[in-house]
Amino acid sequence: MQTLYKTLNKINEIDSSLAEKIQKRLDNLTKPQRSLGRLEEFANKVGQITGKENPCIKDKVLFVMAGDHGVVDEGVSAYPQEVTSQMIYNFTKGGAAINVLAGHVGARVIIIDMGVACRLVSHPKILVRKVNFGTKNLSDGPAMTRGEAIHSIKSGIEIFEEESGKGLDIAGTGDMGIGNTTSSSAITACITGEPVENVTGRGTGIDDNTFSHKIDVIKKALEINKPDPEDALDVLSKMGGFEIGGLAGVILAAASKRIPIVLDGFISGAAALIAYVLEPKIKEYMFAAHCSVERGHGIILDYIGLKPILDLNLRLGEGTGAALGIGIIEAGVKILTQMATFESAGVSEREDRKR
Amino acid sequence: MQTLYKTLNKINEIDSSLAEKIQKRLDNLTKPQRSLGRLEEFANKVGQITGKENPCIKDKVLFVMAGDHGVVDEGVSAYPQEVTSQMIYNFTKGGAAINVLAGHVGARVIIIDMGVACRLVSHPKILVRKVNFGTKNLSDGPAMTRGEAIHSIKSGIEIFEEESGKGLDIAGTGDMGIGNTTSSSAITACITGEPVENVTGRGTGIDDNTFSHKIDVIKKALEINKPDPEDALDVLSKMGGFEIGGLAGVILAAASKRIPIVLDGFISGAAALIAYVLEPKIKEYMFAAHCSVERGHGIILDYIGLKPILDLNLRLGEGTGAALGIGIIEAGVKILTQMATFESAGVSEREDRKR
Question: How far is B273 from chain A (nearest CA, A)?
Answer without folding.
Answer: 23
